Amino acid sequence: MRISRRNYKIYGWIFISAALILYVLFTVYPFMESFRLSFLTFTDGRYKFVGLDNYRRMFSDALFINAIKNTFIFLVIQVPIMLVLALILASILNQKKLFFKTFFRTSIFVPTVTSLVAYSVLFKMMFSYDGIINKVLISLNILSGPYQWLNSGFWAKVIIIVALTWRWTGYNMIFYLSFLQNIPNETYEAAKIDGANAFQTFWKITIPQLKPVILLTTIMSTNGTLQLFDEVMNITQGGPSNATLTMSQYIYNQAFVYAPNFGYASTLSYVIVAMMVVLALIQFKVVGDD
């Protein structure tokens, strides 16, 4: 039996209807509702329209400004280190003559599948007062006694950066490795015949052909860091003295920890959205095709 073009369209809508309904319920509706909430505040047992007051409050909120600074410290320091390290590891593991490549690839990728909460708690235990880091440093006579790593604003940031790098480097490495394996070997052979050294080959051949995946991983890593929550929440709880407080944790505090204020929390959430859009556009301009 021949099916008409009209029936094809009807069947198509039927097939995607379940996914479409779920998308509207769990993505479109929450997005619109949170945007509406950003113009409201909860007072006297009900939500009251306050216009742009939440947005004005945001600019004078010293704690939120501090959270923005902390988040961008993680972004500016951790993301470049992680991506460069992932690119170097991918280049090394792409060498044909390297022994045990599968073992090394798997070992570096394994942290990616580790639970965010589990590995965060592990890092907290390692750097605690009686943790293994203090014990090793004392045994090596580097420290004379246990050090409170998580009570120092500087070292607390360093620990979170190390944790993020350990967790996500292998994830980005897989992207680079898959693209490297698609670069024709003849390209490298031609460069070698022309007298190009290893650095010139890497900079002039490998990097240009990895531009699309570099852009992809940069945008994903940027968006992930702007929403950084699990590691900070489980390792430092934003301390000491809000030295590691991030935007996402502050939004969580506004919604669930302090006196609940979903209107102001929604407003702050849209700041992250705006930052993501702006940074993505900048990255497309810098890394993308001319």
Fold and architecture overview:
- By secondary structure, the chain is mainly alpha-helical.
- It has a single domain (61-287), classed as Orthogonal Bundle (MetI-like fold).
- Helices cover 72% and strands 3% of the residues.
- It has 13 helices and two strands; from the N terminus they run αββαααααααααααα.
- Strands 1-2 form a two-stranded antiparallel sheet.
- Helix 10 runs antiparallel to helix 13 (262-287) and helix 12 (247-257) packs antiparallel against helix 13 (262-287).
- The protein is globular.
- 23% of the residues are buried.
- The mean pLDDT is 89.
- The SSE string, one letter per element, is HEEHHHHHHHHHHHH
Q: Approximately what portion of the residues adopt beta-strand conformation?
A: under 5%
- Count of extended strands: 2
Round the mean pLDDT to the nearest integer and report it: 89
User: What would CATH call the class?
Assistant: Mainly Alpha
End-to-end C-alpha gap: 51 Å
Radius of gyration: 24 Å
Strand order in the sheet with the most strands: 1-2
CATH fold topology: MetI-like fold
Please tell me what the overall shape is: globular
The tally of domains stands at 1
CATH level-two architecture? Orthogonal Bundle
SSE class: mainly alpha
Taking pLDDT < 50 over at least 5 consecutive residues as the criterion, the unreliable ranges are none
Major sheet characteristics:
2 strands, antiparallel
DSSP helical segment count: 13
Give the name of the CATH superfamily: MetI-like
Query: Roughly how much helix do the residues carry, as a percent range?
Result: over 70%
